Amino acid sequence: MAEAFLPDDARRAAEVIRRADIVIGIPSYNNGRTIGHVVRAAYAGLAKYFPQLTGVVINSDGGSTDNTQEAVLSARVEDMHLMLFPTPIPTSHRLSFPYHGVPGKGSAFRLIFQMAKRLDAKACAVVDSDLRSITPEWIDLLIRPILFAGHDFVTPYYQRHKYDGTITNSIVYPLTRMLYGVGVRQPIGGEFGVSARLISRYLEREDWETDVARFGIDIWMTTIAIAEGFRVCQSFLGAKLHDAKDPGSDLAAMLHQVVGSVFMLMQEYSPIWQSRTGSTPAELFGFRFDVGLDPVQVNVQRMVDAFKRGCHELGEIWALALEKDTLAAVRRLGGCTPESAELFHLDDELWARVVLDFACAYKRHPLLRGMILRSLTPLYLGRVASFVGETETLVAAEVEEKIEQLCLVFENLKPHLTAQWNEDSDQVRGSQPPQDVEQPELHEENLEV
After folding, report:
1. 312 and 193 within one domain
2. Best label site of 46, 200, 240, 373, fewest CB within 10 Å?
């Protein structure tokens, strides 16, 4: 069953190669301009840091129509003498296959993990295909804690612009830390190291055809590793610089899939997270340093306008999702939005209560989950607008401190979540399920998520 979606050409390649110590996986879709650099960095990292081991670089492609696969197969490491390799560079295989299954990053990961298992790899790392800041050292930092320190899962720790990664900063990091008691700063970072035994656990799962197959894969991997007691650590990778995207076009889908995966796993691991209190940071490898970062432009007014439209158009579904006091506070905020968007303020406690209420609503109303998740988007945009206004004059360290304060607010509200979660699941707040709730336009430009 685990190999049901492994393409025939991938099976044949595995039969020829037979085994490898390390597999580096690179999911892609139309990344021909950047993927060659990523492949060269992976190839050089294997050669420089693990010359005594055999390695395979596998591109799992989503049907690219540009030169992505050709760029993978033709990539070479130039000027090898300048890389200061201690020994002649060994031969590493470079493979590129189209994956099968639900279109998305998770399906690409599935092929990579299946190949790693077939090749009996001791460790696997996955990296994004549009990275501009990847270096050979990233391969060492993602693989070495697994091979030589006994860890099963390595997450990235980046220096990021204060407005980059707002889904992580406002929802996924504080919620995951509160639930499972482990502080993993970038639980949906995109780059990971995974042990052989954790790969086997992932492939045993039967939820590969859900939103896990799309944007939900990163938090799915992280949550399983933490909740099931695998050894988890972080590695400092410096800056993550990657291709600029139009997040407005994918914002609602990404939020829906990532947060939906978090809420889904909350139900599965409910006995585990309810038994854990407080949090401790995961062990951090690598040398931390400050780096220059690409600027991120944010249109605050558009986000505030989306929040205001949500207040007018989503009242029925919010009445199902939110506690009465939380809903009243949100409505007051929507009714007294200041003329200056920069003065808009959705405070930490109200935001944390919104997220926790939505998690419980997702559990209570299984038939309305899609609508509930979509209706969170304007609230999320309002929170980001508030955060931008609060941190406009702050430096990176001060912004990080504010994010840590938000995490503590979430942790302090855990008893409230537990009590609400354990209420009678048949209880439904407010009116009957709305039939036709119109969603506001959510194509917010210039918001990096």
Report:
1. no
2. 200
Structure-token pair, residue 201: 């656990």
- And the tokens for 2? 């685990």
Alpha-carbon distance values, 336 to 302, 307, 330, 364 (Å): 17, 12, 10, 31
Q: Is residue 442 part of a domain?
A: no
Burial of residue 369, with CB atoms counted within 10 A of its CB: 0-12 exposed, 13-18 middle, 19 or more buried? middle
- Asked if residue 178 and residue 308 are part of one domain, the reply reads no
- Whether residue 274 is found in the same domain as residue 315: no
Q: Are residues 111 and 210 in the same domain?
A: yes
**What mean pLDDT is predicted for residues 31-35?**
90
Asked if residue 434 has pLDDT above 60, the reply is: no
Domain holding 136: CATH number? Answer: 3.90.550.10
Residue 116: C-alpha distances to residues 24, 31, 113, 203, 207 (Å): 9, 23, 5, 11, 19
Between CA 235 and CA 368 the distance in angstroms is 39
pLDDT at 131: 86
**Phi, psi values for residue 37, rounded to 5°:** -65, -40
For residue 56, what pLDDT band results from cuts at 50, 70 and 90?
very high
Q: What stretch of H or E contains 208?
A: none
Q: What is the pTM of this model?
A: 0.89
Percent residues over pLDDT 90 in the chain: 57
Q: Are residues 90 and 128 in the same domain?
A: yes
Strand order through the sheet with 153-159 = 93-98, 55-61, 22-28, 123-126, 192-195, 153-159, 232-239, 283-285
Report helix, strand or coil for 60.
Answer: strand
| Count of domains observed in the chain | 2
Q: Cα(371)–Cα(448) distance, rounded to whole angstroms?
A: 24
Please indicate, yes or no, whether residues 103 and 137 belong to a single structural domain of this protein: yes
Domain interval for residue 315: 300-421
SS3 227: helix
Tell me, yes or no, whether 89 lies in a domain.
yes
Distance in angstroms (rounded) separating the CA atoms of residues 127 and 38 = 8
pLDDT tens for 200-216 read 999 999 888 887 877 78
Q: Is the pLDDT of residue 63 over 50?
A: yes
Confidence (pLDDT) at 189: 87
DSSP one-letter code for 431:
S
Last residue of a domain, one of 256, 285, 314: 285
